[in-house]
Amino acid sequence: MSQLRLLPSRLGAQASRLLAPHGVQRFSWCSRSSGPPATFPSSTVGGGSSYMEEMYFAWLENPQSVHKIRGHHVAQLDPLGILDADLDSFVPSDLITTIDKLAFYDLQEADLDKEFQLPTTTFIGGSEHTLSLREIIRRLESTYCQHIGLEFMFINDVEQCQWIRQKFETPGVMQFSSEEKRTLLARLVRSMRFEDFLARKWSSEKRFGLEGCEVMIPALKTIIDKSSEMGIENVILGMPHRGRLNVLANVIRKDLEQIFCQFDPKLEAADEGSGDVKYHLGMYHERINRVTNRNIALSLVANPSHLEAVDPVVQGKTKAEQFYRGDTQGKKVMSVLVHGDAAFAGQGVVYETFHLSDLPSYTTNGTVHVVVNNQIGFTTDPRMARSSPYPTDVARVVNAPIFHVNADDPEAVIYVCSVAAEWRNTFNKDVVVDLVCYRRRGHNEMDEPMFTQPLMYKQIHRQVPVLKKYADKLIAEGTVTLQEFEEEIAKYDRICEEAYGRSKDKKILHIKHWLDSPWPGFFNVDGEPKSMACPATGIPEDVLTHVGEVASSVPLEDFKIHTGLSRILRGREDMTRKRTVDWALAEYMAFGSLLKEGIHVRLSGQDVERGTFSHRHHVLHDQEVDRRTCVPMNHLWPDQAPYTVCNSSLSEYGVLGFELGYAMASPNALVLWEAQFGDFHNTAQCIIDQFISTGQAKWVRHNGIVLLLPHGMEGMGPEHSSARPERFLQMSNDDSDAYPAFTQDFEVRQLYDCNWIVVNCSTPANYFHVLRRQILLPFRKPLIIFTPKSLLRHPEAKSSFDQMVSGTSFQRVIPEDGAAVRAPEQVQRLIFCTGKVYYDLVKERSSRGLDEQVAITRLEQISPFPFDLIKQEAEKYPGVELVWCQEEHKNMGYYDYISPRFMTVLGRARPIWYVGRDPAAAPATGNRNTHLVSLKKFLDTAFNLQAFEGKTF
């Protein structure tokens, strides 16, 4: 029996250094103090166990062994062969990849041919139970250190880790049939020749082509094929510009002529809206998946230049589609997100979206993320663009496995994508496929990359395209002939040329071909366009009473609520009995009545279940049983629609994007997002600017999302005061200088023509009506509501059932209804205002005894501006001074918006004077006394009837 001599102290130290960091305890019996004998027998198959065997197999068996943990660091991932995907050329010293590393384990080359029995925890043996050390290392290298780099050992679930090991360690798993190889080649041909065709026809046009990562097309198709095979019927995709046209053509299968006609320099905006550039547009298409012969619906969501902004939108749309199908496990609907490497690492919304992935009300049961890793940003080297080794490291926070793969090895890519789709279906968790590739051209086709990356692009210019490399491989092995390959190319080129000819037909120009969220049947009734009318939004009194009774009760038995909440419920009961509502009860009645009519209601945001101001309490918590809750709103009617109210993560950008996507899926749902304080929407400004304000103009995408933004100057500081109404009004598209024609359908037609609706309701009844109107309108527009804080409990901010029953509706303007309107000839000043300041003005007017001299009119709908009603109000009081009073600073709030519109409707002969706070940089003071002083100052001005005498406008 051969002998293997090692110094005991040195061997113990090696074992400790190697295994201790990974939690291995098996070497403890041979520590320095009780080391093994100076000589010991080496192992023989099936007999005994040597010290070396124990140490080596502790390394091999441990689920955190070095190849599995760090093999990806030395994997050959860069197709160019010049960069390290992890930005580090260091090879871990304990990773045996060459013979010169044997010394780390006190091994000699002769030891490589010794046979070892394989442990049950590894799959590298397949059906074999013993292998030589040389073969063990070769197989580990082949699995973990070649064109695939696996990161998964951070996952704290043994079953999941073993599943991945089996998929990649098992010998022969990456064997493809001739037919599969031919399909892969054909898909590569389509991917590359599509880009070549565009380059030939429109050489001076930007298209953000896929050259250098052509394998992404077969990669996405493999994910879809595999998912379809496992039962998926609907795939929702989001991606940036690079490769978008190719995905539309060869994955979604959009008609090529529809794509080509977008390159026409004489193309005019069709139908409505301004449109957007072709590489931002989306599409929805249902077709047969030719691999599985099953129906598949594919939707590519439109996305602006803000790269990762589409991530939460896709997730929200996916969640909604799953909800409406009753797909609680994500077995019918799934999402796929394509990312760029620099954006994936740099954009915070990626992190926000990942952290929604496992929350009950936001999970989509796993997303397949595909990173197109160009190894460069626009012109920025990755070493200057991220601090993490890989661009994908953010995915580790949710235990998503990360599969790095060399994009110039198509078969490796296809296998990885197949495993990724299977992982998502098996574990309902996110997974990342990192396609390590290159960008053959610059950031776009007009850009010169040699300015900033000369060495990289010298190599790229020499790089053989992946299609040629793969075709040569298949020809060499006899899978295809050169003639067959050339015929495949000629066939697709012919398809492109024929489509190019058809693209000249102007009849095909129709922006609705690019819709990513069609709502079949919504805009028409029996084939005819819907009437441009909105029915009254009031409801029968018995419905109001019933909702009020449920809102003041606990539908579950043996459910103990907080004593403070008992008082709130008794208060609701008392209001219902007296036929009145406050803000919270009005919201309850709006939601409840819509649920009765089959409208799904979803309210989301930070702490919305209780409400930031402890006014809502839509979710009751048992005080004695942990996590036992009750949602009375879901106990209103036997056959009602479901109500979803869910506290979100502490995110605005990600969550608002999610709810926007949710609202895309169906027009027959009221989807609301509430900011904790109105000003917090500024961290979601990208979603507001790129999707909500401009969505219909850019993509003809109707969306009924509702934003609830608490607003009001109450001395609580800048961040807790203003919802920044001036920003929303500045982005409103109604023309301040255009005097409208006041037709019979003016109100609804004006709503149809605007890009969104901005309101600041001063009564609970009007809040009730505007929520119901949002669903009863024959179209969908985003609705921005500045909601109150102090008015939630203001004794005067109450409404009667009489203002909510059948026949009543939303009031765009609430006119003066006191003494002034009964004697208009006595009125000296007409004050227009909106929101909470009305109650300050009424109180001040009463204290000064000016009820007959000053009329106060409330502007409830600010945009689109109610020209007709403003004209009527002003004509009631001919010749009186007109004042606009707001509590916001002059350079904020509403004044800059309303002033030119008053001028348009009234002319320069009757100026409207400004009363409010002086211009300022911050929207509010944090000092209570300063707040009160400024309030008193502008109220004094509002009721000083000589304030504007002698002044010129």
Task: Explain what this protein looks like in three dimensions.
One of its GO terms (biological process) is glycolytic process. It catalyses: N(6)-[(R)-lipoyl]-L-lysyl-[protein] + 2-oxoglutarate + H(+) = N(6)-[(R)-S(8)-succinyldihydrolipoyl]-L-lysyl-[protein] + CO2. This protein is an alpha/beta fold. Among the domains are: 3-62 and 96-143, no CATH class; 178-514, Rossmann fold (3-Layer(aba) Sandwich); 537-599 and 617-639, no CATH class; 815-942, Multifunctional 2-oxoglutarate metabolism enzyme, C-terminal domain (Rossmann fold). Helix content is 36%, strand content 14%. It is built from 31 helices and 30 strands. The strands form 8 sheets. An 8-stranded mixed sheet has the order 5-11-12-10-9-6-8-7, sandwiched between helices. Strands 19-16-20-21-23-22-28 form a 7-stranded mixed sheet, with helices on both faces. A 5-stranded mixed sheet has the order 25-27-26-29-30, with helices on both faces. Strand 17 and strand 18 form a beta hairpin. Helix 18 packs across helix 20 and helix 29 packs across helix 30. The N and C termini lie far apart (110 Å).
